[in-house]
Structure formats: C-alpha cells, structure tokens
Design brief:
This protein is an alpha+beta fold. The protein is 38% helix and 30% strand. It has two domains: 50 residues, no CATH class; 163 residues, Lipocalin, CATH 2.40.128. It contains nine helices and eight strands.
Amino acid sequence: MKKTSLFAGLIAACLTLSSCFTTGTGAGTSTTGTDAGSILGSVLGSQAGGDILNSLLGGLLTKTLTEESLYGTWVYQSPEVRFESENLLAKAGGEVVAQNVERKLDSYLTKVGIKQGVTTYTFNKDKTYAITTGGKTISAGNYTFDSKNKTLKLQGTLGLMNQNCTVGMDGTNLCILYDADKLLTMANSVGSILGQVNSTVGSVASIFGNNYKGMKLGLAMSRK
C-alpha cells in the first residue's frame, strides 16, 4: 500500500473515470471492482490496482466472519482506513491520501494511549468483551455481533460506553472500524480515562481533512 505522492492525482482520476465504464450492454449499469482494478492495474501496475481496491470496505465484508471466529484476544497492530465506495475513495484523493490518513491516525491513537502491540480487544464465548491498553481496562461489558451486516455493538458497563463498529477480516487480521467522527469521540474518551493530555483534540475535519464522509477508521488486530 505504499506508493509515492506523484500518483495521487492520477489515482483519483482513474477511479473517477472507472465510474463511466459499464458491464453488459444496458445503459446506466455500474462499474464493478474488477473494472476499476483493471484500469488502475494497467496504468500503475497490477499491484497498485490491487492496493487501491484493498482500500475499499467491501473487500472486508465479503469474507466469512462468524461470531466464533471473534473469540479470543486480539492485539492492535496498525491503523486501518477503508472507504465505502470507489467514488468516495476518488473524491478523497486516492490511495496516497488514505496512507496520509493512516499516518495521522496512528499518531493520534498513540497520543491518546491506543498503542500498537499494547492495546487489546478480548471477546468471550459468553458475549462479554474487554478492551485494555497497558494492562488497564478502558472498556468492558457485553457485545452483540450481526453476522449478516458485519457489525459489532459493544455495550459498556465499565469505562467506555456504547460503541458501534463494522468488522471484517483482512487475511488473518481482524479489522475493527468506526465512522470517522465516532472513532474520534471514542479515542478522546480513551485519552480521558488514561489521563493522557492530547493536544490534537478538535473536529474530524481538522485532523483528517474535509473528505472523511464515507471513510471508516479503526484498528487492524492480530490474534494473540
């Protein structure tokens, strides 16, 4: 997913152009992910095209995820940025912008106390969960998993209160994603619980830019 900023405008243009391509002969038929990947792949190389499509939320949601596969403890490894559609990815500025958001997100989460290799999510068979960082519990309660919509509802009885997330698998990693503004609220609450002083508190736009609509932000977690 790492490419130079020279391709940012080209990537966005290709994604926008791909919306004009149709499948079949009927007018108004929408483009498929394969079309976009082929266009980007031919311009930037197959790896680049694949990387762009990897930034789309749909890729996570098409993979099988059951409640049983959630069981256990997951450790935060890296920030995760996904877009709900190709058009939103193009509007935001393409993959290079996504990488920039990832860097900002990683820096922001670290400041509030959510750290790679330190913060964990644990899901138990009795439908209870716990979120810890540095050995301190920042949220615990009950969870509900909707396997059809790939959503996770965390109802906190300790620390952080209710959270609504989108979840999916990227290889062996579990991705826990929030709407951008919801993640900011959650992270700020974590900072308060941990007593972290955060100089970057502000609006979502001030931290992640103006094109955050349709962008999901969160954590990629590996099984402990």
